[in-house]
Amino acid sequence: xxxLPEVETVMRGLAAVLQGHxxxxxxxxxxxxxxxxxxxxxxxxxxxxxxxxxxxxKYMLMRLDGGESLLIHLGMSGRMVARRAGEAxxxxxxxxxxxxxxxxxxxxxxxxxxxxxxxxHGWRVGFVDPRRFGAVDLVPxxxxxxxxxxxxxxxxxxxxxxxxxxxxxxxxxxxxxxxAALLDQTVVAGLGNIYVCExxxxxxISPRRLADSCAGVRAERLVPAIKAVLAESIGAxxxxxxxxxxxxxxxxxxxxxxxxxxxxDEPCPDCPGVPPxxxxxxxxxxxxxxxxxxxxxx
Length: 298
Prior knowledge:
GO terms for molecular function: 8-oxo-7,8-dihydroguanine DNA N-glycosylase activity; class I DNA-(apurinic or apyrimidinic site) endonuclease activity; damaged DNA binding; zinc ion binding. The chain has six helices and ten strands, in the order αβαβββββββααααββ. The protein is of the alpha+beta class.
């Protein structure tokens, strides 16, 4: 599933193509994805100008000039495909040229493309989702935080307001492993399996350690580690492991920098060959693979 850096990367790509432009056509090719599309979706979006974008956890919000926001969740296999109307290939997102054909009917559809937006400057953006676990909804912009998918989320990990004190308070009294606590979207929003593994490694904290024991000094190491690994991944365009590609058709590169994730039995990058280090180990927690160095992470 795309995690926070991948969603942020896709959102930035969409903003480069759509922001400031008008949606002239909405083509719905099924009744919905994980949930039905909202009533009158095409009618409510067509003719609206894209004002701005915002990410909340793993959700993208495309704000329209009519006072509504299009909420997009990529789910497990969703991706956004941006191209010039009529073009079969997916070009890189770059400088925006003059508008050509503003209607999208002459563009061959992608496989599993369920929603298409066509703009007044000749771009089409499609939501491709083979497994249909993604979601699209409309929400009043002023009430975004009250949406059922957003209302219970914890703080954004990249916000200045996410501090060691805030994390410590959220972990107080939690007797679950710290790995599970960080995946709890009410504790901190947007973290997934990959980046929790990487952040715990950087902070030197065992994924099996109880969450409430990570308040205080350990939280002071963990919060900067979370922020750093997310920022670095965004700078690398996210991590491409299975289905994820950016809106311009390129893949992310952060997987080339993983310290532990997916590296079972490989040498630890911080203590290779140092006894008693036996390399990166994999355990299963709540049905998810966890990768860590037992020597470095305590």
